[in-house]
Design brief:
Helices cover about 80% and strands about 0% of the residues. The chain is mostly helical. It contains 12 helices and no strands. Helix 5 runs antiparallel to helix 7.
């Protein structure tokens, strides 16, 4: 009987996490991609490899502006997350990234089309599991995903009050989380709360990025356009 392939070592995991922390650098992402691809070929059911592969795909999907690219990357994130959650359904990472993959895929195809494909139930199944396991994973990531869900849904399912409350819950624990402030500002603006939206977007512009430089810089870049929109509304 053949022995199973060795799982990733602690040293490899630390190396991959260090590369992920530098993911604003395309060369670091390429190196990480290559290492994870090789690891997945060797140990296709290694949970620690699977969720990390889903994580980097989600980063790429999150930043993709081309809908075809975003759709493909979202689908890959979803599939890798599902493979991870099958191996360890009681761990938050697989559930969380599978949900985010479905979310990115849905944004790419359009929310109405995604609802027509029956993706809402699949998204909530995975996200609600993540919320139960650890709502503060990735500085409140599951709460942000749920809040964004209530923001992006079309009427009559859209619920801006519920959306804002989830972002505020994440901010209470992790005020450094710039994505929470950005999402809150967009929800408040959509709800006609321009002054509060402006206060929230200033928290992004004036916030530090030391908690996660790649993430913080991405969010501050996105926030500039939102801030301009809010300030036009205030005039």
């Amino acid at each position: 009987m053949a022995l199973p392939a060795l799982a990733a070592t602690p040293e490899e995991l630390s190396s991959w996490d260090a590369l992920y922390a530098r993911r604003q650098d395309a060369a670091a992402v390429k190196q990480l991609d290559e290492a994870l691809k090789k690891a997945l070929e060797a140990t296709p059911e290694d949970y620690e490899v699977l969720w990390r592969a889903a994580r980097v795909r989600n980063w790429q999907a999150d930043g993709a502006t081309d809908t075809k690219v975003k759709k493909a990357l979202g689908k890959q994130t979803w599939e890798l997350g599902d493979r991870a959650r099958k191996v360890a359904p009681d761990r938050v990472e697989g559930q969380y990234f599978a949900a985010l993959g479905i979310g990115a895929y849905s944004q790419a195809v359009g929310i109405l089309a995604a609802l027509g494909e029956g993706l809402e139930g699949k998204y909530n199944e995975r996200l609600d599991a993540a919320l139960k396991l650890d709502p503060m994973y990735e500085r409140g990531g599951p709460l942000l995903a749920k809040g964004r869900y209530y923001y992006e849904l079309p009427w009559p399912k859209r619920d801006l009050k519920k959306s804002a409350s989830l972002f505020q819950k994440a901010i209470e624990k992790h005020p450094e989380q710039l994505r929470a402030w950005l999402y809150l500002s967009e929800t408040l603006l959509a709800d006609g709360e321009e002054k509060k939206a402006h206060e929230a977007i200033l928290s992004v512009a004036q916030g530090g990025v030391g908690y996660d430089p790649a993430e913080g810089q991405r969010i501050q870049g996105w926030a500039r356009k939102v801030q301009t929109t809010i300030e036009k509304e205030l005039k």
